[in-house]
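Notebook entry, structure prediction.
Reason for the run: the old model in the group folder had no record of what sequence produced it. Starting over properly, with the input documented here first.
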Amino acid sequence: MQLLCLISKCLDIEMNEMKELFEDGFQTMRMTYYPPCPQLELVVGLTPHSGATSITILHQINGIDGFQIKMNGAWTPIQILPNAFVILSNGLSNSIEPRATVNSTRERISIAMFFNPKLDLEIGPIQSLTTIESPALFRRIKMEKYVQDLFSQKLNGKSYLERMKLQPEKAVAFQVEE
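New structure, fully documented this time:
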């Protein structure tokens, strides 16, 4: 919870909302080995996707770059600073479209930790960040259904995330009772 507290401060999110989302949630971890491949055009390490989790912390173990994000329609390599973590927030800040690539001569190892709300919780835009001037742009859905729907289709960039968007005329601001 200490990490989530720091994230909530950075993003100006009420701590009680972070607690409600993650206190009884679950965490998973994936360690990925990408062997070297001299013919880079033949393989992709991890296809472009939108995240299935709320928060992902990525650590590249052996310093071999391969993490990329799509910026302005082009894939941009992200240089990870030594001893640094990349924190990806699915919807807490601007969503990115990541992918992982292999190296032509060296193996690459990464560890990703995923922080998720409990499956029976309804997820959506953080209510304390929505206002009449800045309404919620995504619909609310049970976490379990979100994960089931996401994994029942082919990873295809941000296509599932795009389907979660509300039409502009349906965007709503949440009324928070004082």
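Summary: The chain is about 15% helix and 25% strand.
The old model has been moved to the deprecated folder.
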